[in-house]
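Morning run. Coffee first, then this:
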Amino acid sequence: MIEKPRYQDLTNYMGYGSGDILNDLDPASSDLLARIRSMTPEEVKIKIEVASNAFDFWSSVPSPKRGEILLKAGEIMESEKDSIGRLMTDEEGKTLRDSIIEVTRSALTLKFYGALAFKFGGSTFPSADTDTRIMTIRKPLGTVALITPWNFPLSIPVWKTAPALAAGNTVIIKPASKTPLMVAKLKDILMRAGLPDGVFNIVVGSGSSIGNTIFSSKLVSAVSFTGSVPVGKGIYKAVGEKPNMSRVQLELGGKNAMYVDESSDIARATEFSIRSAFGLTGQSCTATSRLLVHHNIYDNLKAAILNKLSAWKVGSGVNPETNMGPVVDKAQVSTDLDYIGFGQEDGAKLIFGGKTLGHELFLQPTLFENVTEDMRIFREEIFGPVLGMTIVKNIDEAIELCNSVPYGHTAGIISNNNISINRFVEGVEVGVVKVNKPTVGLELQAPFGAFKESGANTWKEMGEEALDFYTKEKTVYWGW
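And here it is:
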């Protein structure tokens, strides 16, 4: 471990807590990136009050002016994408290539909502009364709380923050304890772009220690959370018990399936399967962990995947030859290895990987076959580079197996048969369907939201629809 923290200067943007010290480590090297003091519940309350006090001013700023700040922030982020990408790779572990892609998309997201702020307002409607005009006015909610995960440490904070600010809300954001520096960098950029003090506030600490302080506060008008199903359900319950119940937006876990049918091109199916399962080290709620393969092409696809994986390189994300970076921390590696053991115990056949490679956080991409729907690796979220292959007879069985788990984030189909594609798109119970594409990867202009236990099934994120969550609408009947 290095003596001097590499990014200690960024902690100035978080404020100072008096709780336990958090050592932010590079997962590829264990180098110390920063030392951060967690906040106490009382310190969090103060931050919430600061955000609440800033609301009247910020909400009165004309929305085009708010948009200008977001547009400028996007320009700053885009101009510094290489250094920000390196920070992301150092803190989260993903490859530098993937980090720079995430930074670039985050910059575009800031610009997208900056532009939408220029037309933020309401709608007009015709009236049956010739002396009446009907219109709506959209207003911000107040102070909103954003709880973000470590796996997309910049893009998820941005796609929550940008519409919240565009609509005129003030923000309390709690980043994951594993990746707080990326949110500190976001604040740095927003402040340089002209965001006033008190509008964007970071709180640092574990959810168990400060979460309830955020959720129960009467000053918090909405909570947007991305993370695990158990925590999401707990937040939903806690917010629902408040006297002044806040809005809740949840994006939770996934157990996503991809179906490869007999008409598909083997090379393309191989590429998309591997990218979906092992890109980002499998640490994505949209990653594929179940590969459903038509029996007629199963042997050929398995051979192609094994051949491709044999050349994959696992290592530090800053190495340009690396295909897959480290797992984020020891706890996640332990979970991954546990599930690899469960797969073998339940009767699946391990045909590639399954072990760490020297460094304790470098885990091989892991492939199982003979996976059946009663197995834990088929039904339970792992959140790591573990893929199970299952042979299916036809499209009907593929849809049935896809829908047989309680999750509903994404699903994919690789096919050249339009009839099968249409049946799959219509039949799978998920919020996002990918056709001849990897299941990972979303575009900012389109709405995103999950079904079943993968979300609250209420408010969408991204796209213009994201503004709905952060606004309330007033209808006016204007007569004369």
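Residues 256-435 form a domain with the Aldehyde Dehydrogenase; Chain A, domain 2 fold (CATH 3.40.309.10). Good start to the day.
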